Fold:
Amino acid sequence: MINAIKAVKAPRTVALRMPMLAVSGVLAGLFMTFPTYIGAVLQWLVYIPAAWVLFSLARDGDGARRVYLRAYRYGFFFFMAEYLVNYHWFFSFYPLDFTGMSRASAAVVVAVAWIGLSILASVAGGAVFLLFVAAARGRAAKDAPVVLPFIGGALFALFEWVETLGWMGVPWGRAALGQLAFGNAVTVMSASMFGSYFVTFLIVSFSFLIADAACRPKRAAIIRASVALILAAANVVLGAALLAVPEKGHDIRVAAIQGNVSSRDKFQISNAETVKIYEKLIREAAENGAELIVCPESAFPWNLLKDEGSLGVFRAIASEYDVSIVLGCLEGWRDEQENILALMYPDGSISDVKYSKRHLVPFGEYMPWRDFLSTLIPPLAEISMLEYDIRAGSETAVMTLSDGTRVGGLICFDSIYEELALSSARDGAQILVLGTNDSWFTDSAAVYMHNAQARLRAIETGLPVVRAANTGISSLIDSHGAVHGTLPPLVDGALCGTITTGSASLYSRTGNIFVYLLIAFYVAVTVYGIACGVIGHRRKKH
Structure:
């Protein structure tokens, strides 16, 4: 690095690092959480302060151990600032009165969830800064400093991918969410080829290139700024080209049912009252010409398939209007119980193939490390309204309508994990039906972020999404991620519209190859640095 970067070690400038990281992290969180047109533009610049800090940190003259510890601390601080914003909506849970717990216990649970999840994300996020500094202090960065901005983009993208791994991983904060402020999703369409991690890579690399350009002589600065602008422009051109490709499937009239039954009410009103609510809305959708009607997750919070009286109500509607109905209910008993979507055909029969929720909500549908955590934080054991853990499904369970259309299922938490949607697309799904219960979030930012995640899944898979939410937001999303109708939170209704079936995207077929390329890229940079160090050491000895 040139003298301009070395100069950032001045004490006064060092004192600015934490405030700059705080501002950068908070803004990154805000742009993801509350997408706006101006935010979508500024998001391409929001990581500049973080990049500047990392470039300066890499040139600190302290020993490697102290620099790496400092880098991790800075990384933890940056991501903590971001995720405290991303997860602020946990306050909407309070007082959790539908669980029956005390207000004191509810306050503990909300605080643990908000701060705990932020800490978990930040513990992993700290490694992003550490690994960047390690690469920046290596031989590869000295021989080819142009790779540094792309290392930054790669590590931020890999961090988002790591968040999808294990039960503690919650990929809630994705940079691509901020770009969905553009209704046509032109800057996100490249995700249909390489995934949303590619979008993150571009956004962060852009910021790092601009930050790097500011520390370079004029010629080098122009080159880096030009590369940044070319990358952003190429992504827009690619997105526009992909949007111009017409949908090639067949049209189908669909409906998303929103009963507006809160989490508290659904366990207090009778089964007969619940059936009456959904009978009215399903009939309304059928009268509007729907061929496929989708109900929310656990709209019927009991073993509906064993309740012949209730099933008879919906069988009558299916037969009268020649319509297929996806019912969200529970199946099984006690620790064998599953959260499912079941397809009812126009003749009233139930498909043998039922979709069972694959990624369960920790502490809500099952208790991880039950004995340990319930002893350490007793209020956590009070969250689940079920006596036993729900059993997770393991199959895509693609269902087939009577006309041959293949339907893939997702339930609530499933929809933030792209691999689950991709696997359904690979198994031949032409539509994704998403049943969710977002009543926990009332009308907070979480409701809108969760709906945005569904838009990402549509773009990534190349499949339209019919999203039926218990209390909202219900939406009809085409294969390009555009929304063709919504029902806002806290109202009831039947959202009807026509969608065009899709087919598996390039990303669906190839999976996370881009992620593996990023891993290979970082490993290559690291191995090169180690190899040069070993060779240099041997030359000194001789």
Residues 1-11 have pLDDT under 50 and may be disordered. The two ends are 29 Å apart (CA to CA).
